[in-house]
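Thread title: Can someone regenerate the structure for this chain?

I was given the following input by a collaborator and told the matching structure tokens would be attached. They weren't. Posting the sequence so someone can regenerate them.
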Amino acid sequence: MSVTIYEAAVPALTLNLQNLHNILAKAAAYAAERKVEDATILGLRLFPDMLHLARNVQVACDLSVRGAARLAGVDLPSFPDDEATIADLQARIAKARDFINSIPVDKFDGAETREVSLMAGQAPLKFHGKEYLADFVLPNVYFHVTVVYANLRGVGVPIGKMDFLGNLRLAA
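Best answer:
Regenerated them for you:
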């Protein structure tokens, strides 16, 4: 039995976005309890030369949405980067998740060999769909979600591995 690009992409991307949403909910509760302003949470960085937390959320959403769109051969949506609160970031995540889930399954037909070209900074990249998903989209999404998790865990937000992994489909 082979796995389709849709089966490999959409559940993984939507699960990561849902987990990110849930992690941010715990961050919001933590901030409210300690009277920490959202701007402080959104500005967290692991190191001064790294992206702040809000930007990591935006990038995780953009990579998920653009990855699914490119694999499905549909127009790339664009979201403004104007989130100023944790709730704003959660709304962006919901928009990203809704977009991905709105793509008809049949749009992913042939995605394994669909040519994907993009720019990463100044570098042009070219992939076939299967490599694009496995070597670019999923590792980048996991990276940015991990950075958000690490920032929040590092300041004491009570999250753990199961928050990162989310709802595992355990065998009965």
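The longest helix spans residues 5-34.
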